[in-house]
Write a structure and sequence with these properties.
Blueprint (H helix, E strand, L loop, with lengths): L2 H12 L12 E3 L9 E3 L16 H16 L3 H6 L8 H13 L9 H10 L20 H25 L2 H16 L1
Amino acid sequence: MPARDMERRLLSGLLEWVSLPVPNYEYFCESHESSSRPFAGYRKLPGIADDTSKMVDRQRVAGQLEIFLARLHSYPVDKAREAGVPEERDLVVHWRDKSREQLRRLDGLNVNPGLLRRYLENDTPVSFEGAASLVHYTGKLDAEVISRSRYLATCLAIHNITLGRDLGRIQWVEAGYAALQLVFAT
């Protein structure tokens, strides 16, 4: 099943499940004569623009995010499978390999590239071995969860920088750089 169909099916199931709005596709076109890429449309999600994010009540947003993530984590795995969501049993290895490849394409990082490479190679955390869930990890917040979270945040920051550069999305690049600074500041 193509990823776009999986995404549409999953999001339609999540609409009633989670506590915050998610995209609800209203328009979808497989392809157009001038493009081989599909496109979709949905109503703009409510919220504030990123340029005003400094005025956000972070405590309130954190509370909303906590509820949203708790609901997302509890989404039935069987429903996700029915929507076509692939199972990635070793998420850490998947993102490590992807990040190592993407890191080769990056220059001008705001952290020491050698340190970052050594971290990806030598500090790979233990993979999660619990029950499957749609997203993230559930359960006790222990040292292993924190280690995996830090590692995956690093990998996703590299991905955001790479994808942002490829697509000309400077805000994704900036968010990736900011995430790297936060991860390596601790």
